[in-house]
Amino acid sequence: MIPEIGHFALVLAFGVSICLAVFPLYGYLTNQNGFCATAKPLALLQGFALAVSFGVLMYGFLAHDFSVKYVADNSNLDLPWYFRMSAVWGAHEGSLLLWALILAFWGVAVALFSRGIPDHMSALVLSVMGMISVGFLAFMLFTSNPFVRILPFAPGNGADLNPLLQDPGLIFHPPMLYMGYVGLSVAFAFAMASLISGKLDSTWARWSRPWTTVAWAFLTLGIALGSWWAYYELGWGGWWFWDPVENASLIPWLVATALMHSLAVTEKRGLFRSWTLLLAIAAFSLSLLGTFLVRSGVLTSVHAFANDPERGVFILGFLIVVIGGSLTLYAIRASKVSEPGEFGWISRESFLLFNNLMLTVMAVSVLLGTLYPLLVDAVGGGKVSVGPPFFNAVFVPLTAILVSGMAFGPLAKWRQSDDPKLYRPLIVTLIVSVLVGLVWPSVLDGNYSIGTALGVTLALWLAIATGVDFVKKVGLYGGLGATFARVERGMIGMWLAHFGLAVMIFGVVMVENHTEHRDLRMGVGDTQQLGNYDVRMTDLAVINGPNYVADQATFEIYQGETLYKTVTPQKRRYNASGMVMTEAAIDSGFTRDLYIAMGEPLGEGDWAVRLSVKPFVDWIWAGAFLMGLGGFVSITDKRYRKRIKEEKAEAAVEGATA
Amino acid sequence: MMRKLLGACVLGLSLSVQAAIETYQFDSPEQEARFRQLGYELRCPKCQNQAIGDSDAEISGDLRAEVYRMLKEGATDAEIKDFMVARYGRYVLYNPPLDQQTLVLWFGPAGLLVLGGILVVLRIRQSKKALEEGESQA
Amino acid sequence: MNRLMVWLPLGVFAILVGFFFKGLTLDPTEQPSALIGQPVPAFELTDLNTGQLLSRDMLPKEPFLLNVWASWCITCQVEHPYLTKLSEQMPVVGLNYKDTETAAKNWLQKLGDPYALQIFDPTGRLGLDLGVAGAPETFLVDANGVIQLRIQGEVNDRVFAQKIQPMLETIQ
Question: Which of A60, A240, A339, C46 is deepest in the core (most CB within 10 A)?
Fold first, then answer.
């Protein structure tokens, strides 16, 4: 009975989304405020309906309702409650419901926080978001319904959640990621509203900026979480594989980064309006494209959610409507905006153009590599594989070029910035970066690595340049306190994000060039060296987990004579599915991770064991975290808070006079 | 549905996405480095997009053993890759060789960079001109 | 943005959509064999049943199927009856892949042995040379010993009609 409530709520949400898509747009086109005014209440109603639907599905998991097919396929009586909750989005249908829920949530947010925007504009924005909802809800109701029942004979137990997903990673990574993906729909909707209304001045950029920044920040954190999860979960210490599904999240991220920067120019200088519009359309379109790639089966991936060409056709149809429609409207309307603006060869505008150029080329390159096997096969060229060797060969140099330019942008002024004095600090920056970069690899063990030298130079170049800009501003405002109190939050955000990128690059360079790992045969009583430590296997036992049985080895890690730590990696076999999984033991440190994973039993109580030292690997995710933090700090800017305060004051006045 | 299930049993092993940890002994660190590099560049023919160095599927293990055998016998990297391609097709190379079919792939990014660069330059030139005109009028 | 360039994104998208539609009809996991058009690789293995040393000149001199199977392979059990039926039309040579002698012999005893020859390949060496990635796989070899087709997965009515039959007709 209860699942039917969830189903009903889903259908209700579908109906509401159709109204939301149609009424405000109709109201706008026929100039009827009444219809426009339905936008916000409908958005709120949609959010409520989807919350109910989602809540019911989650209840089904918590209550072990195996009469719901999706629950039966993805849960189990022995599955711990916290994994049962996250199992809601552990497979295709449920993750779509999460998508729809988050889309509705962003709609609610726009409805609530858009009082600074003229009603007819927010009506259009919500209408466009409603149209996207219609597509997702239709997709669910007609092809991927999470509420399908197994009646009258519900199974007594479920098939269990894929053991790879029985992890806190599943609790955080998809929601964060979707907040990002779906959040880009707001920027898309603003761009569309702007095109529909023909109001192509730069005000849409001003409104759209905080929404884009927040979505970008969530996407950054979501991708970083996914990478971290893969690292500790998959058992061999990799953190990025250039898998199509990973690329499907990276490509919109790159475009969203370009969009964020382009919006800055459009907001502040009224320039690049048409290009920024295109980026806003592209960012969300690429999110949708990712949905298609991941669920249609056109690409092979370890992460693929579904391999269903029939569903693929539906999604493709949806893409044609949304992306084709928006690009057509863009082509018709956008050619009317064109203004060269006035700026010189060396100016903040041109540096931001350079930024956009690099990010766009990076995004298209990754897209090209991801789609290439499909493209070649489709023209009858057979099967070709494009993997990490290609992506690394292309992406790394492009990143290096981008990062080289990042030092200049913040120091440059708008319009005309060819005064060499502005950039003098960069001379010292360059000297220090190169010197330290050249020296650093020789301080480390092993052969001198030029890759490390270049990478460290680049990271330092960015970090110090960002620091230089920071110090300059502190000098300008007179002290740290004054700076943080008065400087634009967006500037603080930029410092954090750029510095975070430098931190991340350093981590990547160190881990990729200086990981030591040894695959060894070890039995109880054996000791092996690992970096500066000695690792002794002291025990081997069989452990019964809540829904698995594990072979657990105990390792004592010694630094000289002192015991530093005891770790217990496991090799688990999950009861319901029979799947075998490696739980690596990781000792995280500021300068390195120690990584111990069990391979296969070799007989006579010996196991193949991998011992690794991964230098500075946590800097990768620390850097990404700083980037995301920078994004969130940016939106605490005074002008957005002032508006909220103003709105509250208005509301108070209205309340008093009502 | 049954067919899909049976298809999944093709290897007789469940798909496990695990570390490929074996205790091979190498003649030198360079040889070990080559082994790892080849494990990174060769694709597992039966997996969902994994290199043979990353996958624990049986065929991956067989191919790693073969790479190890050939390395010990003194084969060059090119010979090992050719060996694999002769049997499994060029699908098995994650680093697509540059040939007629992969021209767009390998030259695309650089070409795009050049093209985009030209567009950016033209754009800045336009603005620079407007800037100068604006200043001369002032 | 000038007049024509604004239509470029839509144009690129349209081309991509075309590719995607085509892509939905393709199977990215399917791989054609690298040995199509080449002779069966040379080998020196024994026959599972007779212990006789086999080589490739002892293979049938008419079109035949080379079936890669193992006792640990569940799908092989499923396709076995169909192969038995096929063996009445054309020779089916077995390649027992990465298996143990006893397990394989028991399997054949239990399910029947339709194979004209049974190449015993416990190390998977011949399998590797054939580009075998798992079991079952079946190769169609012509009268000159040249490989013309490879099927990955189960051979059944549908597969035979759609893939093997047409190729058989071409080579005869």
Answer: A60
